[in-house]
Amino acid sequence: MTPIDSILARLTALHPKRIDLSLDRLQQLLAALGHPEKKLPPVIHVAGTNGKGSTVAFLRAILEAAGKRVHVYTSPHLARFNERFRLNGALVSNDELAGAMEECERANKDAPITVFEITTAAGLLLFSRHPADVLLLEVGLGGRLDATNVIDAPLATVITRISMDHVDFLGDTLEKIAAEKAGILKRNVPAIIAAQHGDVLRVIERQAARLKAPLKISGEDFTATEERGRLVYQDDNGLLDLPAPKLYGRHQFENAGLAIATLRAIPSLKIPAAAYEAGLVKADWPARMQRLAQGKLVDLAPPGSELWLDGGHNPDGGRAIAAALADLEERVSRPLVLIVGMLATKDCEGFLRNFTGLARRMIAVPIPGADKPLTAEAVADCARNIGLPATSRDNLSEALDAVRKLDLEPPPRILITGSLYLAGDVLRENGTLPS
């Protein structure tokens, strides 16, 4: 067990609820730490259901291409806890992260607090101590009561696509979920909004009107479309003809457009056109339609096959993945096999329904160590219930062996999906850790 693991174990015992939305506990801790949230670089705050991490990845790549120093806070991590904290382009070191978390632990004095809250406090402490031009701050869950929502005056707020997820905490309708996400909007601060369902957009517009927050809405104030394999972005300030994003899938054109609109809504950053072009082709975000080219699991797959990884886990995420796979099929036809693990808190059938008629077969696997995982057989049952042929195996290696035994021609396209926790297992087992 590493020092960071030991700290996390102690903190979990203080407040065993994994999710308990509140700002009170964190605000008390931040006061004890001397209010690091008031000493941060300028913040861009990002909320939403799907696309938050990819949008942050595009923001970071463009800003860095423009020569800016950028801090990043994202969650959850995939393979290492350090992935949540990026200081001026590099993951925080074990020693510096452990030191910040221990400092927060001492200041908290055994008071009840969730792990995410004290993790956020540690991040704010680290970011306050390292000069930078921008801090990209991703919401953990919701927005209004999320631990990241302690920033009074960000440069901008961003809301990606909103869909049904985390209904136990955010509400059981899109309107309720939208109200929670819109809680990050701030008075007189520009808000950049992805294309949304009409009811969702009306909730956001009402909150923006109350706060006099200027809105930039995809499809109304800016567009980002694919034309002849390139991204064409247009707003009131003109048109950009840009290369296709490095991140694969038509949904990434939308995420890239949201990032571009955000930076163009902040004139003080002075981002040159060349930085948008360079950033799109450099952006990296693991486990989002990621092609695994080498590694232990790649070697276990059938010779000549393709192995892809995506951490999508809700119906809208599944829809985006399925569209990307359909585009791949149109370019190079291969039989598709899914390897899927999911949590019991997710809409298993809703996610898998996107792949009926597209996937030849599904193989379900468990997610060891995850909170509330579905058994592999339960995931397989979900698939069978919607007419998707499915079996189950005990682990990833056995699942890939089962794919080999299918003896498909041409060699298959294999997608491992259903959970970010499973995606982390894949990256660890394959030996391709995020850096």
From TrEMBL:
Pathway: Cofactor biosynthesis; tetrahydrofolylpolyglutamate biosynthesis; Cofactor biosynthesis; tetrahydrofolate biosynthesis; 7,8-dihydrofolate from 2-amino-4-hydroxy-6-hydroxymethyl-7,8-dihydropteridine diphosphate and 4-aminobenzoate: step 2/2
Domain Mur ligase central per the UniProt entry, residue ranges: 46-262
Swiss-Prot/TrEMBL catalytic activity: 10-formyltetrahydrofolyl-(gamma-L-Glu)(n) + L-glutamate + ATP = 10-formyltetrahydrofolyl-(gamma-L-Glu)(n+1) + ADP + phosphate + H(+); (6S)-5,6,7,8-tetrahydrofolyl-(gamma-L-Glu)(n) + L-glutamate + ATP = (6S)-5,6,7,8-tetrahydrofolyl-(gamma-L-Glu)(n+1) + ADP + phosphate + H(+); (6R)-5,10-methylenetetrahydrofolyl-(gamma-L-Glu)(n) + L-glutamate + ATP = (6R)-5,10-methylenetetrahydrofolyl-(gamma-L-Glu)(n+1) + ADP + phosphate + H(+); 7,8-dihydropteroate + L-glutamate + ATP = 7,8-dihydrofolate + ADP + phosphate + H(+)
GO cellular component: cytoplasm
Mur ligase C-terminal domain sequence ranges: 307-419
Pfam family, one: Mur_ligase_C
EC number assigned by the record: 6.3.2.12, 6.3.2.17
A GO biological process held by the record: folic acid biosynthetic process
Family statement drawn from the similarity comment of this UniProt entry: Belongs to the folylpolyglutamate synthase family.
NCBIfam families: folC
PANTHER family: DIHYDROFOLATE SYNTHETASE-RELATED, FOLYLPOLYGLUTAMATE SYNTHASE-RELATED
Identification of the protein by name: Dihydrofolate synthase/folylpolyglutamate synthase
The organism of origin for this protein: Pseudolabrys taiwanensis
